[in-house]
Amino acid sequence: MSSLKFHGLMAMVAAGAAVAAALPSAAAAPASDEGGYVNSTARCPAPKSVVVFGATGNSRVAICKTPDGDFEYRGVRVSDGAKLIVPAEESTDGTFVADNGPVSYMVTAKSLVISEGSKVVREETMVDYHGPQAPAPATPTSTTPLPAPLPAEQGADDG
Q1: What is the pLDDT of residues 47-78, one digit of tens each?
Q2: How many domains does the chain have?
Q3: Per the record, which residues fall in region Disordered (predicted)?
Q4: If phi over 0 gives left and psi between -120 and 50 gives alpha, with beta otherwise, what is residue 117?
Q5: Do you find a cis peptide bond into 47, omega within 30 degrees of 0?
Q6: Which of 32, 48, 53, 104 is within CB 3.0–4.6 Å of 64 for a Cys-Cys bond?
Q7: Residue 84, burial from CB neighbour count under 10 angstroms (0-12, 13-18, 19+)
């Protein structure tokens, strides 16, 4: 290969690498702040406050709390920008459900489940999730002293 062709090929490879480096990664989480996703329907505008928000490969969602204490589902389909803003309810297990006619949207820390009646239409795994953390298990606070260690707990005597 001539030196000119080699250098031209290397320039094309370098240019391709520069373009690839400038493109956002498909796995990268969308930009977010304390209100949800920046420049997205999946954010809670003031005076509402964000409860949880997350992204799947296809969707971005936010659950907002209104000043009156009601919940609101705010979702957007990434492929075409379709938006949905409807009231939501919190379940006893910490999930949120929003109904839009016969279609329900359930938001959990693990997924967005879209169903129609009792039929799951689609379940999308969360790739980015922001919400309350599970409470840490309680530390025992017993004041009863422990008994003396058993011989097997004391270690071997090499003597």
Answers
A1: 999 999 999 999 999 999 999 999 999 999 99
A2: 1
A3: 129-159
A4: left
A5: yes
A6: 48
A7: middle
